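Can't paste images in this forum, so I'm doing it all in text. The chain is below; anyone willing to post the predicted structure tokens underneath?
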Amino acid sequence: MSKKLRITLKKSGIGSQQRQKLTLQSLGLRKLNQTVEQPDNDSIRGMVFKVRHLVEVEEVEG
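Text version of the structure:
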């Protein structure tokens, strides 16, 4: 089974840099407390690292 990351937006992107707002959009996060599942790969982990202060991440199987 491939691993996935469950990413939840915990803080608003308002007041963040434009690049961070675009990163949240790329991850599919639009609303507060919204959760998305993304594949666990280097590009997704890099995006999560850029907005780590706004999101909560957990690894899931599946």
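The chain has a mean pLDDT of 96. The chain has one domain: 3-61.
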